[in-house]
Specification:
Blueprint: H1 4-7, H2 13-24, H3 33-46, E1 52-56, E2 62-69, E3 72-82, E4 101-102, E5 105-107, H4 115-130, E6 136-144, H5 155-162, E7 172-175, E8 179-183, E9 186-195, E10 197-206, E11 210-211, H6 220-230, E12 234-236, H7 240-250, H8 257-268, H9 271-280, E13 282-292, E14 298-299, E15 302-311, H10 317-329, E16 336-344, E17 347-348, H11 354-365, E18 370-375, H12 381-385, E19 391-393, E20 412-414, H13 416-431
Parallel strand pairs: 3-6, 3-7, 7-19, 9-18
Antiparallel strand pairs: 1-2, 2-6, 4-5, 5-20, 8-9, 9-17, 10-15, 10-16, 11-14, 12-13, 13-15
Bound molecules: zinc ion.
Zinc ion is lined by residues 82, 113-114, 147, 176.
């Protein structure tokens, strides 16, 4: 394979920007993903890349699969991204669907999450093709629909059910985003190795309703409030895999890892990153819905509380249930039911694996520190990991990841970072030969 410095002569930054602007202009908010795919297909056709498929779960909800085969057998790498976006919301200083450029940035909903990444994936296919496919193995790109809404009938879950061959013979995968992050003043390229899971239980408190003028000790809203006050909201926990990954990356003593991250971090006083670091190092428990009472003069006989917990692979839904039971047992005796509402397990890919090691090597070669992280929300990678495929997210950038703009106002990407991310993926393929 050509070195990156030679290969980059075959790609113009402006052509990548042009595709990004075109697809930002399509407001694919949980719909119209096929229109995004058609823009990409036009380019593939111009480039003579014929191995693609558009798989629609319904009209307009297309998943695009692009295959580029190398000259011989080798590592089969899947790149996962998505073409849908979340609604723009308030507070934009420009039209979120204009793809406008300002001071070296391209702005728009999806500029980071995840349209820039699918542009980089597409140009990785284009570049490898322009260079005569002089590599070993196979690159498969999956640009999925409906990542943000996670409807089981669209997107990746639809593909797993209806077109499972897409995931056959894959040795490892790259998932969405990553980027440059700064923790405790230290800059590093993120490698997301897993995602926290999400468990929701409904707690149903039962009592005897009565007129509010009568005196009694069984006021359900009081009992429910006590439960909410006593329920722990965060419990310090760090996954073993994550500890080991941090140790490998930084050589720190295990027990010092989080002390260091937390103390340095708290000092630098960045509230958003702080919340993220807290979530990364704790099981978190939140109350999200409370329902009780219908009339101003009746003590209700029922109260419903939804508890949503975010957990690591070491916990599951019964772990959360036991925590709720333990808290409840100190307040009330048996007058309750706990019903499981939703459960998405946490997923974590081992770092003792060729693909992970090659990502680390690639990031070091680009003169950055690799920083393994766990994502606190979930993405399509969780479904792909559940098939036994290791998935890591990385997306090399020179500008820091602006977490608050993702799903927020004025989302943007530093134009030159399209090439920086392409460099990361190209170097990875070179290293995995
Ligand atoms: Zn996304």
């Amino acid at each position: 394979m050509l070195s990156w410095n030679e290969a980059r002569e075959y790609i113009e930054l402006e052509e990548m920007c042009e595709l990004l602007r075109k697809i930002i202009r399509i407001p694919s908010i949980g719909s119209r993903e096929s229109e995004v795919a058609y823009e990409i297909i036009d380019l593939l056709e111009e480039e003579g890349i014929k191995e693609y498929k558009l798989l629609e779960s319904e009209e307009g909800r297309g998943n695009l699969i692009i295959d580029v085969k190398g000259r011989s057998e080798g590592f089969n790498l899947l790149f996962i991204g998505h073409s849908d976006v979340v609604p723009p919301g308030e507070g934009w200083s420009i039209n979120p669907f204009s793809g406008e450029e300002r001071d070296g940035y391209i702005y728009g909903r999806g500029a980071i999450d995840d349209k820039s990444q699918i542009v980089v994936y597409t140009y990785l296919a284009v570049l490898l093709n322009r260079l005569g496919r002089d590599f070993r193995g196979r690159i498969r790109i999956l640009i999925a629909a409906d990542e943000e809404l996670q409807n089981p009938n669209h997107g990746v879950r639809y593909l797993i059910k209806e077109h499972p061959y897409i995931f056959k013979g894959i040795h490892g995968a790259i998932g969405e985003l990553g980027g440059l992050v700064s923790i405790g003043g230290r800059k590093a390229q993120a490698i997301i190795i897993g995602e926290k899971g999400s468990v929701s239980h409904k707690v149903m408190l039962k009592g005897k309703g009565r007129h509010s003028s009568l005196v009694g000790e069984d006021d359900l809203i009081k009992i429910g409030s006590e439960f909410l006050l006593r329920l722990p909201r965060k419990i310090y926990f760090v996954s073993e895999t994550f500890k080991n990954a941090l140790k490998d990356a930084f050589g720190w003593k295990r027990h010092l890892i989080f002390n260091r991250l937390l103390s340095k971090h708290l000092m630098n006083n960045d509230p958003i990153l702080n919340m993220y670091i807290q979530a990364l190092s704790h099981i978190t428990i939140a109350s999200t819905i409370v329902r009780a009472g219908e009339a101003h003069n009746v003590i209700p006989d029922r109260m419903e509380i939804i508890i949503n917990a975010r957990i690591f692979p070491e916990q599951n839904e019964s772990w959360v249930r036991r925590l709720i039971e333990k808290t409840l047992s100190r307040i009330t005796k048996n007058n309750y039911d706990i019903l499981l509402q939703t459960y998405v397990p946490a997923t974590l890919s081992t770092t003792d694996n060729l693909l992970y090691k090659k990502i680390v090597e690639t990031i070091r070669e680009m003169n950055y520190t690799p920083l393994p992280l766990i994502q606190v929300g979930s993405s399509d990678s969780a479904w792909v990991r559940s098939l036994g495929i290791p998935v890591y997210h990385f997306f090399t950038t020179t500008k820091e990841l602006e977490i608050d703009r993702i799903h927020g106002a004025d989302e943007r990407i530093w134009k030159k970072d399209l090439l920086k991310a392409l460099e990361g993926y190209y170097r990875l393929i070179t290293n995995i030969q």
